[in-house]
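Input (Interferon-related developmental regulator 1):
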Amino acid sequence: GGQPRSVQPFSDEDASIETMSHCSGFSDPASFTEDGPEVDEEATQEDLEYKLKGFIDLTLDKSAKTRQAALESLKSAFSSKILYEFIMERRMTLTDSIERCIKKGKSEEQCAAAGLACLLCVQMGSGIESEEIFKTLGPVLKKIICDGTASIQARQACATCLGICCFIVTDDITELYSTMECLENIFTKAYQRDRDANGISSTHNTVLHISALLAWTLLLTICPMNEVKKKIEMHLHKLPSLLSCDDLSMRIAAGETLALLFELARETDADFFYEDMELLTDKLRALATDGNKHRAKVDKRKQRSVFRDVLRAVEERDFPTEMVKFGPERMYIDCWVKKQTYDTFKEILGSGMQYHLQSNDFLRNVFELGPPVMLDAATLKTMKISRFERHLYNSAAFKARTKARSKCRDKRADVGEFF
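Output:
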């Protein structure tokens, strides 16, 4: 059951291929250095595909460790590269392997398989092929999510996977509502726990509730307005109870969901009125200025930062615009819906998010970026700063920083002598 000698794990060196720019081709990382040697791109592509074929074969191995390692290697490749044609030819094989690993594997293998399913749909985009994948995997994911005997980590990964895959592929409104109902049945148990003084629903389920809530929120952003109104009426009065949860991640997830619900509510009705606004803003303000000594400093800092933004969204209808850079392009995140979508895909793509924003047609369509910007080699060369220029810039910046700090030190020294 071991790996064949000819198949090596997908390495950082493999992942770096094509991550510098979407038009640099399949080349060796050494080619990105100035004066790097020329590399046979076709041979590099063939070598990569050979490795990936080996990993796909190993997902059927008898050894659970080997299967999991193969799944993780495929995840690394899918998150860092666009492999549409390669995957298109093998999508049914991949789907069968993922289904088998989710059904029969243990917790870690199930998590890896669910993560690979997300990336498979991200690669394929919103086409008929992705719909076929979702029709196969959707029922399996729902079964694991609702299975109380399955591990919490596996259920959590499947909840995230179900939400993302449904967001990508489904044009069937009935399937969308069915998926949202499945996720609602999970995270609404957190409401019951808050009302139950005996704490029947144990705290180790919190991570599952968070994943289900975030996946449900993502799907809410693509719902028709009449359904959005129904969901807001159903959950807006219950969600504030989760702000008192002991778990920081749950408090943050509930706060950001509230901000998004208020944003959607005001889009559907400019005169939207929330009855318990004063009570809610008091609770948000307390979290934005929390100074409890029993909480870690890092947690308090993160909580205050998030809830300052949430408070501004609820009270002043304001959103702190963020800018994301990828290659020569810029994208502005200027609303909670966009932030929720970006954060979700950033979580599954990791360091490959920038590359996919440049090259992935589906993601560019989601964020309304238009077709990929194709740059020729000459343009890329003119954009690239030489090593000598970079050295001069860093030296100048270092000197300026040293002078500024020296002035501050001098002022502090003078004040000290005066007193």
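Confidence is low (pLDDT under 50) at residues 3-7, 15-38, 194-202, 412-419.
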